[in-house]
Amino acid sequence: MIQLDKKLRVGILGGTGMVGQRFISLLENHPWFQVTTIAASARSAGKTYQEAVSGRWKMQTPMPEFVKNIKVMDVSDIDAVADTVDFVFSAVDMTKDEIRAIEEAYARTETPVVSNNSAHRWTPDVPMVVPEINSDHYEIIKYQRERLGTKRGFIAVKPNCSIQGYVPALAAWKEFKPTELVITTYQAISGAGKTFEDWPEMVGNIIPYIGGEEEKSEQEPLKILGHIENDEIVKANGPRITCQCVRVPVLDGHTAAVFIDFEKKPSKLELIEKLNNFRGFPQEADLPSAPKQFIKYLEEDDRPQVALDVDYENGFGVTVGRLREDTVYDYKFIGLAHNTIRGAAGGGVLSAEALVAKGYITHK
User: Fold this and answer.
1) CATH of 163-338 given 3.30.10.20, 2.60.40.10, 3.30.70.20, 3.30.360.10
2) In this structure, which long-range contacts are made by residues 273-280, counting pairs with CB atoms below 8 Å and at least 24 apart in sequence?
3) Does residue 338 have an active-site annotation?
4) Is the dihedral of CA 296, 297, 298, 304 positive or negative?
5) How confident is the model at residue 340 (pLDDT cuts 50, 70, 90)?
6) 232: burial class by Cβ within 10 Å (0-12, 13-18, 19+)?
7) CA 219 to chain centroid
8) Half-sphere exposure of residue 342, counting CA atoms within 13 Å on the CB side?
9) pLDDT above 90: residue 144
10) Considering 137, 161, 243, 245, which one is annotated as catalytic?
11) Residues 42-67, buried b or exposed e (16+ Cβ, 10 A)?
12) What CATH class is the domain 8-160+345-357?
């Protein structure tokens, strides 16, 4: 593992929301990163962090002591925030146009932005990365910097939480050439920034609609599986993916039920072996947050389960089970990932670690 002489100074944009809170929880005692700055809306600016989130702390663990007395800055005071940090995580709650503008503004101050937001996921020169799968896409940053006129600043994003339970399997099975997938995701309420206390309507309920999730679930895998051509990332031609996204009464953990066809017909044993042995850059570089085993296949008929498996590898790993032959498609399986760790803040932290290891994020 890389050893840094001193920790990098980190800012969290949108630090009072649920994803911002998850960033703060994950960064407590991080070996490389030190949260020095929290920025949020004008209504929170000037308050201590503890005051700003009073009655709204949504994590199941207590608020870390180190963050309680940090004075919240105004996220729109871009130069002032940028002066205090080496890079920022972005979890701001704004319109897509506002997010695109403010993230580019931070990047132009020579401050790298690692974003949890969807606004820049389809910007052609912005890498959208699952570090185990397509860390080579960070190479597009040199073209993005040319466009922005920066030497150090850039934007990198992580993909949507809904895809984390099945895209790793697609990457592990790449040599068998997946051609078509039919997917239903069963998504936790924390994906909407909610708990059961502030969304009691979800208790004992299912809502068969999550705005924008189906389009993201069908299209984002194709960018991840795509390639760099000239100065942009070109999405893959396949596989074809159709998806339904359902909100279920679960706090954390997105489950995916997947039917899949392959061009080459693998055996079940081959598929399981590829899952269990799949490794990527985080494992090779021994990044601080990297799961030792990214994907784990569970043999039991009733696994993976949210209650038993969502925290696999501290929420950074993915579990797969119930792989079996199907009567219409070649195979079907169940995948599970923690939506606010692997699928949100944790994916951002792991991406930042990969960007440090590859030399894109450094001390100012």
Assistant:
1) 3.30.360.10
2) 274/172, 274/173, 274/175, 275/169, 275/172, 275/173, 275/320, 278/132, 278/168, 278/171, 278/172, 279/132, 280/131, 280/132, 280/133, 280/135, 280/171
3) no
4) positive
5) very high
6) middle
7) 16
8) 33
9) yes
10) 161
11) eebbeebbeebbeeebbbeeebeeeb
12) alpha beta
Digit-coded pLDDT (tens) for 122-139: 999 999 999 999 999 999
The alpha carbon dihedral of 151, 152, 154, 160 has a sign of positive
Letter for the amino acid at 15?
A: G
Task: Supply 332's token pair.
Answer: 């079907």
Centroid of chain to Cα 245: 17
Q: Which pLDDT value is given to residue 2? A: 84
Paired tokens of 93: 């709650």
Q: Which residues contact 308 (CB under 8 A, 6 or more apart)?
A: none
C-alpha distances (whole Å) from 56 to each of 69, 133, 275 are 16, 35, 39
* Per-position DSSP letters for 279-308, written without gaps between them: --HHHHTT-TT--SSSEEEE-STT---HHH
Tokens of 362: 């450094």
Question: Is 254 designated active site?
Answer: yes
Using the structure block, give the residue that is written with the tokens 């790298």: 112
Radius of gyration of the chain (CA): 20
Residue 232, C-beta contacts closer than 8 angstroms, at least 6 positions apart: 124, 125, 140, 143
DSSP 48: B
Query: Is the pTM above the cut of 0.90?
Result: yes
Sketch the domain layout of the chain as residue ranges: 8-160+345-357, 163-338
Mean pLDDT of 221-241: 97
Q: Which of 120, 137, 243, 254 is catalytic?
A: 254
Closest CA to 305 of 240, 255, 364, 341: 255
> What is the number of alpha carbons within 13 Å of residue 119 lying toward its C-beta?
20
* 254: nearest Cα among 166, 332, 158: 166
